[in-house]
């Protein structure tokens, strides 16, 4: 009994003889796979595989996978940027927007297998003349487009050939009111562009330019979208520099009848740059020079549409002043190409987008006579207030940085516009009136 009460220290515990811990050999876990690799020249195959994969990543054009969706746009096709440029940029935008990179990375390669995702794009003023042609191109590229328009000068007919397309939406909305949409890009075109229209309600015009632009910049900031402003050559006013470079600050009357438009656009440019510098919104600014083409408003007071409508109706062509004031005229497909290159490129701008071919009003009247009616009369009327004497873009910046220049000569573009005007004036209406097809 007493023996049971004797204390047994740990030294007296029986040592189990069944378990002997193996000595820890840390090198063993490394040596085993190494031995495996060294056998049968496996390591050679491994390095060869790595080299081949690196070569594929380095040299294969990673952007090809998206393919080009720019199809069936007729005349536009020849002015498209190279496929790789478009899809590479789109990849980068998708990458930036969807993966969350802070800044636009110009050098990054896109991993293979990332398909070009279609973008969701807002076009304000998309039912207007320029906007509707831009929409045609974006839809043809495979993107989803939301047109926001209050139909002040725009027409449903300009976009109704997209009705029924699930990638197209049309919202009747005035940009002076805020709007929330989830989008990747905003093309901000909403603003009446012809003097007849913008002088009709100057307060509304300046409000559209200032409050409308603020709203769209606010939207861009909120959703991280890239924003493109369609400004105008009118920011140069009656220029004292000829031709006009983007560095020229202009000669603008701040209190004249055109100021709601000219100064409105200048303010819109200021707001755009302030949102860029102060709120890090990605912005682009285009300064558009006189543009013509199908779907322009008939009788909107712009010189090309005036002359064409008058010649078709057998009315005399009205030349204001002595007709020696000059303008340059670009065809709308050239402009749309420039806008898209600007949006997809890496430069903020401003960029002049116009055709440097300069015509006096009398020369333009002669081209219209040759195209429509050689017997059309010309009448002179007093010039309007603040009408600039000369206007011609210097487009070297756009040529160098966007690789863009206009391609369509006035004599080639005018017949396409005449055909569209003829249909609309004489009632031969088609659903997709004004859609540019292969010449
Ligand atoms: N066409 C040119 O020669 C030219 C030259 C310089 C600048 N621009 C600029 O290009 C843009 C488009 O011009 P365009 O020739 O197609 O003009 P447009 O009048 O045909 O189109 C403007 C569109 O904006 C819409 N709009 C106007 N105010 C609006 C508002 N408050 N809210 C929503 N929508 C509104 C109109 O309904 C119309 O659809 C304008 O910003 C214009 O200033 C055009």
Automatic annotation (TrEMBL):
Query: Where does the record place the region Disordered?
Result: 378-398
- Give the source's domain of life in one word: Eukaryota
Residue ranges with Basic and acidic residues bias:
382-398
What keywords sit in the KW lines?
Answer: Decarboxylase, Golgi apparatus, Lyase, Membrane, NAD, Transmembrane, Transmembrane helix
Q: Provide the protein's localization.
A: Golgi apparatus, Golgi stack membrane
This protein's pathway reads: Nucleotide-sugar biosynthesis; UDP-alpha-D-xylose biosynthesis; UDP-alpha-D-xylose from UDP-alpha-D-glucuronate: step 1/1
Q: Which residues cross the membrane?
A: 43-60
Residues covered by the NAD(P)-binding domain: 123-417
**Protein's membrane topology:** Single-pass type II membrane protein
Which CDD domains does the record match to this protein? Answer: UGD_SDR_e
Q: Which cofactor does it need?
A: NAD(+)
In the Enzyme Commission scheme, what number(s) does this protein have?
4.1.1.35
**Pfam families the record matches:** GDP_Man_Dehyd
Q: Which family, according to UniProt?
A: Belongs to the NAD(P)-dependent epimerase/dehydratase family. UDP-glucuronic acid decarboxylase subfamily.
List the protein's name. Answer: UDP-glucuronate decarboxylase
Species of origin reads Solanum tuberosum (Potato)
Mind giving the lineage of the organism this protein is from? Eukaryota, Viridiplantae, Streptophyta, Embryophyta, Tracheophyta
Q: Which gene encodes it?
A: LOC102592280
